[in-house]
Amino acid sequence: MKRVALYPGSFDPLTNGHLDLIKRSLKLFDELVVAVLENPSKKPLFTTDERVAMVAQVVKPLKRVRVMRFDGLLVHLAHRLGNPTVIRGLRMISDFEYEFQMAQMNRKMLPGYEVVFMMTDERLSYLSSTLVRQIATQGGNVRILVPPVVAARIRAKVKKG
Ligand code: PNS
After folding, report:
1. Is residue 22 part of a domain?
2. Residue 101, phi then psi, degrees to nearest 5
3. What is the spatial distance between Cα 111 and Cα 30, in angstroms, rounded to a whole number?
4. How many A from CA of 142 to the centre of ligand 1?
5. d(Cα 120, Cα 152) in Å, to the nearest integer?
6. Distances 25 to 47, 85, 89, 151, 157 between C-alpha atoms, Å
């Protein structure tokens, strides 16, 4: 049986931290579905179409990764997909509280909901999409923080204003 995992997130934008997690989760699962949230509460830098396209372009060489968008509750998506294991990254202990609460709430709503927390590579634990957005929009260089495809799209976006 194929072991499928679901990696949900805002990916605004996808960072090297996300990509590292995607690659490492492919060692544990046969197939990974990356699900891009349509309406993150924070005002996104990139539209949903742009975020989906960016992720798709970056993961294209990885083959066993599928990208989709989703709106509404994560548990509804998980249910539709047959309740695959959900992957979330943990960078620091500060991530844990929110992730733990979300996981427990999701399990209340969807019995059998399972989440695997993967530790971020310690060299990337300082990295977040929020910081990348802040740096990029204030004219900083994010070249070493995101995949080249994403860096190019950020440059284009910031130039356009
Ligand atoms: O990349 P992010 O912003 O940390 O991802 C957060 C995400 C998308 C996993 C989370 O916000 C989510 O699942 N949103 C969908 C709405 C939902 O299910 N909310 C209830 C959580 S208990």
Report:
1. yes
2. -65, -45
3. 23
4. 25
5. 24
6. 26, 11, 10, 23, 30
Tokens of 79: 């249910």
pTM of the model: 0.96
- E strands, the chain, in order: 4-9, 31-37, 65-70, 85-90, 115-119
Active site residues: 18, 42, 91, 129
* 64-76 pLDDT per residue, tens: 999 999 999 999 9
CATH assignment at residue 73? 3.40.50.620
Residue 32 has, within 13 A of its CA and on its CB side, a CA count of: 27
Cis peptide before 13 (omega within 30 of 0): yes
Q: How far does residue 159's CA lie from ligand 1's centre (Å)?
A: 30
Residue 161, domain member (yes or no): no
